[in-house]
Please model this.
Amino acid sequence: MLHVVYRVGDMDRTIKFYTECLGMKLLRKRDIPEEKYTNAFLGYGPEDSHFVIELTYNYGVDKYDIGAGFGHFGIAVDDVAKTVELVKAKGGKVSREPGPVKGGKTVIAFIEDPDGYKFELLERGPTPEPLCQVMLRVGDLDRAIKFYEKAFGMELLRTRDNPEYKYTIAMMGYGPEDKFPVLELTYNYGVTEYDKGNAYAQIAIGTDDVYKTAEAIKLFGGKITREPGPLPGISTKITACLDPDGWKSVFVDNIDFLKELE
Model:
């Protein structure tokens, strides 16, 4: 997993919050005036070896609808209480105070960024990948698991059912949770559809062959929204798709991606 991409209403405000409260680094920025948007890339290490956030600011748009389908981003921190104090000191919003997760031992808290995106803070020891989760809600968990395994080549790391709170989660990824970012899929009993809003955009994933990836996506019930091939202007090969719930992902050729970073 390379990037998670979403839209914000004030780029400078968001960069300030992520760097000062969440300890991220601003890795690079690019402005595309002819298309009227700016991107900023933030994370905990270089893009060639870390999962990073790609923020998009569209000129003149200061508000987005996050919708009900997007859940949260997960960040592993050494000390949840300390991070929460910092967020409060900087005027951030804490929506769940630090404490053990329901039915478990891990200490967590929830905060919100200036646009209302939720972040789950998870207390963990040192980890190579602090930006560790993207949580999305799905209408059929078995269907989603099968799709991400077969079409995306992800591994089902674990599932957890919480009957008293009426939801089930599945953790999907390309390696163990403590070392790699994961996609957390949540199924709320009886809910088959969600409003996705217009704020969260997509996850970008590296692949050795965008053409083969597109074939696998079609084969296992995904919908290709951009046929595989090079992007105009830069020769990076990509393909874009929707999963069975309508969540978007973009696959990027690994070698082209590294060239682009150079």
